[in-house]
Every structure is written in C-alpha cells, then in structure tokens.
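Quick board copy: two proteins, each given as sequence then tokens.
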Amino acid sequence: MPNIKINGLDYNTEDLSEQGKAQLASLQFLEVQMQKIKQELAVYQTANAVYRSSLEAEIQKAGIKPISEHTNDGDEPAE
C-alpha cells in the first residue's frame, strides 16, 4: 500500500480519487524535475568556480594589478 506524507501525516494513495491521483502524479513529476534542476545548478556552480579560479591564475600569471582596492567576494558579476 503506497503512502504519501503531507504536512507530517501519512495517507494511503490508493484511497485518492482520480483527480487526487492526477495531482499526485504531477507532484511526483515536479519533484523529479526539481531534483534535476538542483543537479544541473551544482554543475554550473562547479564550472563557475573553475572558470573563476582559472581566470584568477591567468591574471596573477600576467601580473595584472587591480584597478582599485575594492575587494569583490565573487558575488558580483564580472563587467
């Protein structure tokens, strides 16, 4: 008997109406899609860190000096 937990309470999915079962299927689909997006975001965040690190290494290798003393914590977009 498959169950679903909503607001901390377990419900038997076999007791759902057809409309309820359709909503459950939609909810399950969305949860899978959200997990895929989280995984994709993790890939982008990793690539972002690698590109930033590589760029910083190139800047240091070239001996380029900052144009101001303002420190960027990495959260501001590059201009």
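And the next:
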Amino acid sequence: MAEMESPQTKENYVRANRPNEFKEFDKIAIQYLSQGLEIPEEWKVYGQALRDMTKDMDDSKVDLVGGVWTIHWPTKPE
C-alpha cells in the first residue's frame, strides 16, 4: 500500500509496483531453468496472472480506500 501523491490510474499503479512481484517469479524461473528443468505449471500460471493484472481492471484487483491504493496480487504458489 502507498499514499497517493497524485492522481493516477489503477493500471499505472499496478505497473509501477509489479516489478517487485516479478522479482520472486524471476528468481524461481531462473532456479528451474538453470537446472534444465521446466518451470512448474503453477508458477507459469502465477506469472501470467501478474502480466494480466492490468487487463479488465476492477476493484477485485486494486481499490482505493481513504486515499490509499491497495493491490490484490495473485496468490503465489507454495
């Protein structure tokens, strides 16, 4: 969550914060690929869900309460 300093769209807010989420996805992908292994399907689905966050944007993905944006990220695989 972050204080909103200037008006911006939900999509842009997600785009600005999504790289942090991709860091973990990339770390997992690199671990598998560097061992010659396939990325597990649940991680592929998670990565696609991160990329799709800005499609069909609604309050189930990002909402604004009291001037604070809250992003509801996809659930990371275990």
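Board note added afterward: The chain has a mean pLDDT of 88.
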